Amino acid sequence: MPETWYIVSVLAVVFTITLALRALPFAALRPLRKSALVRNLSLWMPAGILVILAASTLRSEVVADAGHLMPVCVAVAVTVAAHFLGGRRTLLSVGLGTLSYVALVNLV
Amino acid sequence: MNNPSPPIVAPPPIPTPSQEIRSGIKDSFAAGLGMFPLGIAFGLLVVQSGLPWWVAPALSVAGFAGSLELLLIGMMAAMTPLATIALTTLLVNFRHVFYSFTFPLHLVNSPWAKAYSVYAMIDEAYAVTAASTGRWTGRRLVSMQVAFQVYWVGGGLAGIGIAALLPARIEGLEFALCALFVTLTLDAVKSRRQVPSLMLGAAAFIAAAVLVPDVALFAGLMAFIALLIARHFLAARKGIQNA
After folding, report:
1. Which chain A residues touch B36 with a CB distance below 8 Å?
2. Where are the transmembrane segments (chain A) (predicted)?
3. Closest chain A residue to B205 measured between Cα atoms?
4. What ipTM was assigned to the predicted interfaces of this complex?
5. What's the half-sphere exposure (Cβ side, CA atoms, 13 Å) at B211?
6. Do B95 and A45 touch (CB under 8 A)?
7. pLDDT digits (tens, 9 = 90+) for A40-64
8. pLDDT grade, residue B5 (50/70/90)?
């Protein structure tokens, strides 16, 4: 279990960076808006960052227990299928994917 | 909503403060429907991953950014180094930089309310203001944001309560975060123009996971940003050549 000082440091880091990202652009809008690099990054970052986060969290599941490889694959397939067939309703897709994963790792 | 354009229609009456607050809360309902259940999942996960219960409300006050908070639970439980947490926070929340271009902060007058409005400029708040054609006022905007934080913190506390009632840890519940990122990725790649970014991200992470498995997330994110900067300068050079 992490110690309290570690948790408090995480809170401080997260607070400072998140607030800075939200507040600084209001103070320095013009140069940021003009920068072609910043504009391109804003356009290109989301898809790549999200796929890295998805891959990283999925990998941790498999690293924690190699027997979870099959449940992970099945549950990802369920999530993707639900998302496309259910009309991109995030709550539904996440719910069905999680439900199938919980069922697979506990019952199979 | 009245359209102020035709001359026959009288200008809409100026709303009273309580009307503004009520319409702000009404604006929060649709997104709140998603935030509250996700908050419950967040609270459950905090308890199940062995972190103290107060981490849930503390993170929701310090960070107030749903997907990052969910990600941080696992990272904190694994005692991830602060540098990795800082980089992850920076990159995951970087999108907020661009919200400021259109977010109607100028409507908020009092300096405290302004500070809160900036602090609470979450995805949902940005999305609702960007999609809405309604007449925003400072009070309406801030009451919507307060409502969002109430749903999120409240959901987290409800999740902690539910976890206390559960007889045992439910194995596999943490998959909710994986599933969330899978759906967010699908939503980010709605057009073919996003496919190169997706491929670069996937390549960066796979390379990092093979070469430096212990710091795969940190290295993958850094490599991805390096690739995007290279892509920017390549595209700029091509542009000059074509011109």
Report:
1. none
2. 6-29, 41-60, 66-86
3. A52
4. 0.89
5. 11
6. yes
7. 887 888 889 889 989 998 998 899 8
8. low
In this structure, what token pair is assigned to residue A33?
């808006």
Answer yes or no: are the C-beta atoms of B228 and A41 closer than 8 Å.
yes
- Number of A to B CB contacts under 8 A, please give it: 242
Whether the predicted pLDDT of B1 surpasses 50:
no
Q: Are B88 and A57 in contact (CB under 8 A)?
A: no
- The residue type of B63 is G
**How many whole angstroms separate alpha carbon A107 and alpha carbon B202?**
32
The shortest CB-CB distance from A101 to any of B105, B175, B202 is to B175
Q: Distance between CA atoms of B224 and B239, rounded to whole angstroms?
A: 22
Distance from CA of A23 to the nearest CA of B (A): 6
With contact defined as beta carbons under 8 Å apart, do B200 and B227 qualify?
A: yes
Q: Which of A13-22, A23-32, B33-42, B209-218: highest mean pLDDT?
A: A13-22
Q: Which of B189, B220, B228 comes nearest A56 by C-beta?
A: B220
CA A103, CA B171: separation in Å to the nearest integer? 9
